[in-house]
């Protein structure tokens, strides 16, 4: 008879101690900030729950890709999930963001008459950060746009600005107006940009996508002046 195993879920859809992997997986799979661990006894699981920490290696029951977590500075970290897009690119566009802050969730969304995918990805991040109640805490932002995540995490946008919005290949950087806004917003913040795969079942990414699409197809749309006036281009 197989020995019973206990799974402690410190961060998931419903934290607690579970006795089957199927129940545990339902709480942590696709949950970006999941924290869980398997133990041979309930007592060990309960002890770990009082002060949960990651072990050096993932549990054998889970593929490594499922337990690899984006960097989060501490347990009090605020989370922002974002997405954006434009129909036919360029075309009517929208952004969506979900903010998890101080135990609450808030949705943000908006749409524009004529814009681009990349501009809406940037706008989602900007709106999410602008609407934080407290910018002095650690923040983890999740986006499915490598354009945005790499632009910040790899320092590309800062270098473009230093060079007068010229890229390393000598070509003009695109969307400088929105990059400028984003760089100014995150100045001095403890914020980490994390990439998540889009349209892959991540619940909060999918939620942001639906918000963005709904706004892009709405009847009340703003004008993206930065794009229309060619301050930012595709």
Report on this structure.
The structure is a single chain. With 234 residues, the protein is α/β, with parallel strands linked by helices. The chain has nine helices and eight strands. Helix 4 runs parallel beside helix 7.
Short synopsis of the structure:
By secondary structure, this protein is of the alpha/beta class. Helices cover 34% and strands 24% of the residues.
Sum up the structure in keywords:
three-stranded antiparallel beta sheet, single chain, 8 strands, alpha/beta, 9 helices, 34% helix, five-stranded mixed beta sheet, 234 residues
Low-confidence stretches: 55-75
Shape: elongated
Give the N-to-C terminal Cα separation.
61 Å
Q: What would you report as the Rg, rounded to the nearest angstrom?
A: 20 Å
- What strand order characterises the main sheet? 6-5-4-7-8
Percent range for β-strand residues: 15-25%
Mean pLDDT rating = 85
Element string (H = helix, E = strand): EEHEHHEEEHEHHHEHH
- Summing up helix and strand content along with how strands pair, one would put the structural category as alpha/beta
The largest pleated sheet is described as: 5 strands, mixed
Number of strands: 8
Helix amount: 25-40%
Helical segment count: 9
Secondary structure: elements and pairs:
Blueprint lengths: L5 E6 L4 E3 L2 H8 L6 E5 L2 H9 L13 H4 L10 E9 L4 E11 L2 E12 L1 H14 L8 E5 L2 H8 L2 H7 L13 H11 L4 E5 L7 H14 L8 H4 L6
Parallel strand pairs: 4-7, 7-8
Antiparallel strand pairs: 1-2, 1-3, 4-5, 5-6
Helix pairs in contact: 4-7
